[in-house]
Design a protein that fits this description.
Layout (H helix, E strand, L loop, with lengths): L13 H6 L3 E8 L4 H13 L2 E7 L8 H7 L2 H4 L2 E4 L2 H10 L3 E5 L6 E2 L11 E5 L8 H4 L4 E4 L11 H13 L9
Parallel strand pairs: 1-2, 1-6, 2-3, 4-6, 4-7, 5-7
Helix pairs in contact: 2-3, 2-7
Length: about 180
Amino acid sequence: MQKLKITEMQRLGTEEYIKSKKLPLTIVLDDVRSMNNVGSIFRTADAFRLEGICLCGITARPPHPDIHKTALGAEESVPWQYYPSTMAAVEDLLCQGYSLCAVEQAHGSISLETFHPEIGKRYALILGNEVKGVRQNVINMCNCCLEIPQFGTKHSLNVSVTAGIVIWQMVAPMLSLLRP
């Protein structure tokens, strides 16, 4: 095996990316404090060509050097919108017909490996604050809570790691929508 060169990867340019078909998945960040986490989530959203990101409350917004450090320009390609509150974002997404999935440890949550998104349905994944998680009033508005099974001593994963895991699980069945 030989590593691919960047010129062999056939990636889209930013303008081409912006015009391209997106997967029906939007990420909602509920008061995410770390700009490095925000940037990392932008980069993951770009990698899987997601519809966009909702930045809510205290979540930092581009342009910012600390977001750019981990986003590496994805903040330029991934559409994003700011909402003063996560509830405002959730209400807007519900009006647009999204199915809302909080990523949270909760009574009645669905273990991530058993969740199968419906092709053609639009989803919004809500990811919470690094300490407090997703707000309860936001969870109350959601169609479900998804939980990543964990077997160690820690109670949670980093929010950008969580985003990567859950996004992959959501988009894997949808990849055929992007392939020619």
